[in-house]
Amino acid sequence: MQIDIYADIVCPWCYIGWQRLRRAMADRADVATDVRWKPFRLNPEMPPGGIERDLYLATKFGGVERARQIAATVTEAARRDGLPMAYDRIRRAPNTMDAHRLVQWADGFGRGTAMVETLHAAYFTEGTDIGDPTALPDLARRAGLDPVAAAIHLSGPQGVDYVESSDMRARELGIQAVPFFVFDRRYAVAGAQEPAAFLPLLDLAVAA
Fold first, then answer.
1. Residue 200's CB: how many other CB atoms inside 10 A?
2. What is the model's pTM?
3. Where are the domains of the chain?
4. Superfamily classification of domain 2-43+95-207
């Protein structure tokens, strides 16, 4: 079963939603799945170098204190799913174009999911600026890829058109928030649902 996941690397609910889907997939280990990551940029107008995180939070959520309340809610949800979060380590809100390009490149080697998980861990638990092109090759190494080849890939325009077209396609489909999961190109689930919500869709593969 093909599962398309529209997500942004800096989206905490994408981080949580993927882990919940993984648990559902583990409960249906007899179902062969083909996970494909589809870029969606929450902040397509973000400057290439990103911006200072407190400024971003104040602008997006109407103030740092409100943003901290939201972060506390997300952190608690992640904790219940066994996921560490360290928002206090994040200093910049990054532009995720290069991170998405890196995932797409990694997918060509069968390492797309490994790259996503590495980027999630680096951003949410270590506070790594995943918009910094000098940090990304080492993250590629941690995902089992050649860091030199990753740096060469990121040094050119490869993958930019793909990321932009995927983001545009998502919006044409009416996707306004992520994560957004599409099963077998027919059935959609929006949001970081509990694992049980994914099971009926995985069961479709068995019934087919």
1. 13
2. 0.93
3. 2-43+95-207
4. Glutaredoxin (3.40.30.10)
